[in-house]
């Protein structure tokens, strides 16, 4: 069930039975020569919508701009400061908590969001602990790629060409989801370099075309379909466990 496609009465009826919601969170940032700028947000949203459909759960609107300051030397990238993203997450959670949602399953598409998301959870709990804010809120973070089958597939398909950013796995999934937007861009395999994140100019100097040790020219929509399915399959079970826990 998508919150955006529900009426208030449908949301109220859902809340009479359940208190869980999936919140997709991504990023809007460069994804190398052939990857879409929206990759992380588009994927988190599509996976969350499918998980919600199969788990009979509610899914919130995607938080589509994340913490991507290190990509800002590439045209089109957008970022929130960590402190801003924390406030955006906090207001999203507290709005929903006001209506009775208590379990928040953040389905994340971007590695660069992870530390900020965890800090936001602490900030949300601090509201209840210090100011008598809304208690009983339970937030978890799940990255789309955590399922063991996802990791296995990426390793089988791409091995050490997977790299760390603008990976063939994520580009494959967006090719599956948006077949009209597949880009054909000639490229050489990126040199192998350890992942290191500093500021935006440092990133561009280190990774001139935006990739980190990956070869996204290997991406195919067929692989994307398999990776998408493996991700959804794992997360449905994981969400249902989270929603049913005491
Ligand atoms: Ni990404």
Key phrases:
46% helix; 246 residues; Rossmann fold; 8 helices; 4 strands; 4-stranded parallel beta sheet; alpha/beta; binds nickel (II) ion
What is the SS-derived class?
alpha/beta
Bound molecules: nickel (II) ion
Radius of gyration computed on alpha carbons: 18 Å
Averaged pLDDT, please?
Answer: 97
CATH architectural category: 3-Layer(aba) Sandwich
CATH superfamily: Creatininase
The biggest beta sheet reads:
4 strands, parallel
Number of discrete helical segments = 8
How would you spell out the order of helices and strands?
A: HEHEHEHEHHHH
Helix proportion = 40-55%
CATH topology, which one?
Rossmann fold
β-strand amount: 5-15%
CA-CA gap between termini = 23 Å
Molecular shape:
globular
Low-confidence stretches: none
Strand order of the largest sheet: 2-1-3-4
The CATH class, by name, is Alpha Beta
Count the E strands: 4
Q: How would you characterize this protein structure?
A:
This protein is α/β, with parallel strands linked by helices and 246 residues long. The protein has one domain (3-236): Rossmann fold (3-Layer(aba) Sandwich). It is 46% helix and 8% strand. It has helices spanning 8-17, 39-55, 82-98, 114-131, 148-158, 168-177, 200-206, 221-244, and strands at 20-25, 58-59, 103-108, 138-143. The protein has a four-stranded parallel β-sheet, with helices on both faces. Helix 2 packs across helix 8 (221-244) and helix 3 crosses helix 4. It is globular and about 55 Å long. Nickel (II) ion binds at residues 31, 39-40, 110, 170.
Topology:
Elements: H1 8-17, E1 20-25, H2 39-55, E2 58-59, H3 82-98, E3 103-108, H4 114-131, E4 138-143, H5 148-158, H6 168-177, H7 200-206, H8 221-244
Parallel strand pairs: 1-2, 1-3, 3-4
Helix pairs in contact: 2-6, 2-8, 3-4, 5-8, 6-8
The chain binds nickel (II) ion.
Nickel (II) ion binds at residues 31, 39-40, 110, 170.
């Amino acid at each position: 069930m998508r919150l955006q496609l529900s009426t208030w009465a449908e949301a109220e009826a859902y809340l009479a039975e359940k208190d869980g919601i999936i919140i997709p969170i991504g990023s809007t940032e460069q994804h190398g020569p052939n990857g879409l700028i929206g990759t992380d947000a588009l994927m988190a949203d599509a996976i969350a919508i499918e998980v919600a459909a199969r788990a009979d759960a509610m899914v919130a609107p995607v938080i589509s701009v994340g913490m991507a300051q290190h990509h800002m030397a590439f045209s089109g990238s957008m970022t929130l400061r960590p402190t801003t993203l924390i406030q955006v997450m906090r207001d999203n959670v507290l709005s929903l908590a006001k209506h009775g949602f208590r379990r928040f399953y953040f389905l994340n598409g971007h590695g660069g969001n992870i530390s900020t998301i965890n800090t936001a959870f602490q900030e949300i709990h601090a509201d209840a602990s210090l100011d008598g804010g809304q208690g009983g809120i339970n937030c978890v973070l799940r990255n789309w790629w955590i399922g063991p089958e996802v990791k296995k597939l990426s390793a089988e398909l791409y091995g050490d060409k997977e790299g760390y950013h603008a990976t063939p796995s994520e580009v494959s999934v967006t090719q599956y989801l948006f077949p009209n937007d597949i880009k054909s861009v000639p490229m050489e395999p990126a040199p192998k370099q350890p992942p290191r994140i500093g500021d935006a100019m440092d990133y561009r100097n280190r990774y001139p075309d935006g990739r980190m040790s990956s070869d996204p020219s290997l991406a195919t929509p067929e692989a994307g379909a398999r990776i998408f399915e493996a991700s959804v399959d794992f997360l449905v079970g994981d969400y249902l466990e989270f929603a049913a826990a005491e």
